[in-house]
From TrEMBL, chain A:
Superkingdom of origin organism: Eukaryota
InterPro entries, per database record: DNA-dir_RNA_pol_insert, DNA-dir_RNA_pol_RpoA/D/Rpb3, RBP11-like, RNAP_Rpo3/Rpb3/RPAC1, RNApol_insert_sf, Rpo3/RPB3_RNA_Pol_subunit
Span of domain DNA-directed RNA polymerase RpoA/D/Rpb3-type: 23-296
Similarity comment: family membership: Belongs to the archaeal Rpo3/eukaryotic RPB3 RNA polymerase subunit family.
Upper taxonomic lineage: Eukaryota, Amoebozoa, Evosea, Eumycetozoa, Dictyostelia
Gene Ontology cellular-component terms listed: RNA polymerase II, core complex
The protein's name: DNA-directed RNA polymerase II subunit RPB3
Keyword Acetylation: no
UniProtKB/TrEMBL annotation, chain B:
Alphabetized UniProt keyword annotations: DNA-directed RNA polymerase, Nucleus, Transcription
Name assigned to this protein: DNA-directed RNA polymerase RBP11-like dimerisation domain-containing protein
GO molecular function, one term: protein dimerization activity
Family stated for the protein in its record: Belongs to the archaeal Rpo11/eukaryotic RPB11/RPC19 RNA polymerase subunit family.
Gene3D superfamilies in the record: RNA polymerase, RBP11-like subunit (3.30.1360.10)
GO BP annotation list: transcription by RNA polymerase II
Compartments reported by the entry: Nucleus
Domain DNA-directed RNA polymerase RBP11-like dimerisation: 31-103
InterPro entries attached to this UniProt entry: RBP11, RBP11-like, RBP11-like_dimer, Rpo11-like
């Protein structure tokens, strides 16, 4: 008897722990690791953003050569919330490029003073208000966020036209919207308090200190004098605590385990897209891929 | 100079079929599916879903060459079904799974947004 589609479909569960301006943490459970990995791979390589792809130099007598500056410009993240409105240049009906598939940015800086002039991402002026360098966004415009491009001495000049296009991280990593996109298994750490009580205060401190990522905490001045788990998510499974426990002759002091069906995702955005949008677009892209293949299969088989 | 175009990684050439199926001549109920311009993302996803099906005797995927952006999925089934039927079933399962994932994600984000103080 064959299993039906409903029987075979998993019901994944999702819980968002935290959303910040540039990062999101959520738990995905009740699904397969291949789903988690597909999601991670797509978030890194297949969510489209806008990035500078072509640069035409009109004047450059700075110390950096044209190619060097062009490369630096490419790596500047641009606000890509309106990326859906653009099409890929290769799919566009225009012959070369047009407003539907590209955005032009201009940079025109000349140093006339005696001190060096920093050319930064905020000197890039976009012709489209929705595609601007992330550092020029109103909410976050402060000097610390500006990305330096080159320094000019007196008399030096940089004048160029940069063309931003839509692309995906598969083509070049500059189009990747995520700085970090990882998942980890949920760690399960169980302390054997009876064994811990057998240790001396010094041993307790030594054992807590053996963890390089500070999963455990122990305060000898506290009245309870207990060793506690501060943050299990910090655990990197180096098993240093296990080794330490072995050296004390107490191998059952701590029990470490990974829960392999709960995935804790951490996604950080480069600023190009909102972190929750990166995840949502990634899910939609996988869905589109699957329906695409499904359609082709139904159509052209046999 | 002779570098391949960067978009060769994901743009289907004109006239090419995204999915093709070749029946195995020696083994009954076995086929090899070739999906063009896809990688481990989709390959592994489909393979793991196929394995969950009890009617599947064998399911595996490979990328035949790192410079050719195709995946091969080989499937052998028992007599209850055929490789084509089973892969279509698996794709339907995955589609449904991602639809429900999308819905629950949108719902969760909405919930989180309503709790304004946590949204920094």
């Amino acid at each position: 008897m064959s299993q039906s589609v409903t029987q075979l479909t998993r019901q994944p569960e999702l819980e968002i722990l935290e959303i910040k301006n540039d990062s999101i943490i959520f738990i995905l459970s009740n699904t397969d690791i291949s789903v988690a990995n597909a999601l991670r791979r797509v978030m890194i390589a297949e969510v489209p953003t806008m990035c500078i792809d072509l640069v035409e130099f009109e004047s450059n007598n700075s110390v950096l050569c044209d190619e060097f500056i062009a490369h630096r410009l490419g790596l500047i993240p641009l606000v890509s919330d309106s990326v859906d409105k653009f099409c890929y240049t290769r799919d566009c009906s225009c012959s070369d490029r047009c407003d539907q598939c590209s955005v032009e940015l201009k940079l025109n800086v000349k140093c006339t003073e005696n001190r060096p002039r920093d050319v930064t991402s905020s000197d890039l002026l976009s012709q489209n208000n929705s595609v601007i360098p992330v550092s020029s966004q109103a909410a976050s415009s402060n000097n610390e966020q500006e990305i330096p491009i080159v320094k000019l001495r007196k008399g030096q000049e940089l004048r160029l036209r940069a063309i931003a296009k839509k692309g995906v991280g598969k083509e070049h990593a500059k189009w990747s919207p995520s700085c970090v996109a990882t998942y980890q298994f949920q760690p399960i750490i169980v302390l054997n308090q009876n064994r811990i009580d057998e240790l001396t205060d010094q041993q307790k401190e030594e054992w807590v200190g053996s963890c390089p990522t500070k999963v455990y905490s122990y305060n000898p001045h506290q009245s309870t004098q207990q060793v506690t788990i501060e943050d299990p998510l910090r655990c990197v499974y180096c098993l240093e605590c296990k080794k330490k426990a072995d050296s004390f002759g107490k191998p059952d002091l701590v029990h470490l385990e990974q829960k392999q069906d709960k995935f804790i995702f951490t996604v950080e955005s480069s600023g190009a897209l909102k972190p929750e949008d990166i995840v949502l677009y990634a899910i939609q892209i996988i869905k589109r891929k699957l329906t695409d293949i499904q359609g082709q299969m139904a159509e052209g088989m046999l | 100079m002779n570098a391949p175009d960067r978009f060769e990684l994901f743009v289907l050439p004109d006239g090419a079929k995204k999915v093709t199926m070749v029946r195995d001549t020696k083994i009954p109920n076995a086929s090899m599916f070739t999906i063009l311009k896809e990688d481990h993302t989709i390959g592994n996803l489909i393979r793991m879903q196929l394995i969950a099906d009890q009617d599947i005797i064998f399911a595996g995927y490979r990328m035949p060459h790192p410079l050719e952006h195709n995946v091969n999925i080989r499937i052998q089934t028992n007599n209850n079904t055929t490789p084509l039927e089973s892969i279509q079933k698996s794709m339907e399962c995955l589609s449904r799974e991602f639809t429900s994932l999308e819905n629950s994600f949108i719902e969760q984000v909405q919930k989180k947004r309503n709790v304004a103080d946590q949204y920094i």
